[in-house]
Design a protein that fits this description.
This is AB hydrolase-1 domain-containing protein. By secondary structure, this protein is α/β, with parallel strands linked by helices. 36% of the residues lie in helices and 22% in strands. It has helices at 21-52, 109-116, 141-159, 171-182, and strands at residues 3-6, 12-15, 59-67, 76-83, 95-98, 121-124, 164-168, 188-192.
């Protein structure tokens, strides 16, 4: 319920304090959904830019076209960040990092400079997350998992990365494990976010 009151100038205002709390909560949710739907890409770019501005290592950010892994009528792209330190040892394996559920590649910004001191680093937005393409995945968990693994493999092939370290956090660690099990013939080291990379 809303109560209308008149001001000295004759204008009518509403007393929002008398609005039913449940109705106010629903309106707030609706407003949030509208803002998220129409401005999330722009806000994501802005937030990522702020975080990556903290990096001291030179980096490149670009999309990798992986073809139509999920959508047979379209083409998917994976947003990728690569860091190369001229002083890093070339003989060291490159590092590929996968973020957690509901996150993106910028979550790694506190770690990237340290890792890049020794090796080339690739961070990516998993297909369906961050700035990568967001296709409609299969509702079947097994097929959805296969689509994600295939997307990662297509990404690897496009960048021509052979032997590498694959590191994941949370959901990214799960995906990394699935990828390693699906491609046992690949030359890769599988690790998780608490492992000491200086050992490799």
């Amino acid at each position: 319920m809303t109560a209308n009151t008149s001001t000295a100038s004759g204008q009518t205002t509403s007393d929002s304090s008398l609005i039913d709390p449940a109705a106010r909560q629903q309106f707030g949710l609706l407003k949030w959904l509208i803002e998220w739907t129409f401005s999330s890409k722009q806000k994501l770019r802005q937030a990522e830019k702020v975080l990556l501005a903290q990096l001291k290592t030179p980096y490149q950010a670009y999309f990798i076209d992986i073809g139509n892994v999920v959508d047979v009528d379209g083409s998917e792209q994976i947003w990728t960040l690569s860091l190369t330190n001229p002083q890093a040892e070339e003989r060291r394996l490159p590092l590929v990092v996968l973020h957690g559920q509901g996150m993106g590649l910028a979550m790694w910004y506190p770690n990237l400079d340290d890792w890049a001191k020794q090796r080339k680093v690739y961070a990516l937005d998993i297909l369906g997350f961050g700035r990568s393409t967001r296709p409609v995945f299969s509702a079947t968990s097994e097929l959805c998992e296969c689509q994600l693994i295939t997307a990662l493999e297509e990404w690897r092939q496009q960048l021509k990365i052979d032997e590498f370290i694959l590191l994941g956090h949370s959901f990214g660690a799960y995906l990394a494990s699935c990828y390693a099990l699906t491609h046992p013939d690949h030359d890769l080291w599988l690790t998780y976010s608490k492992f000491n990379l200086h050992q490799l």
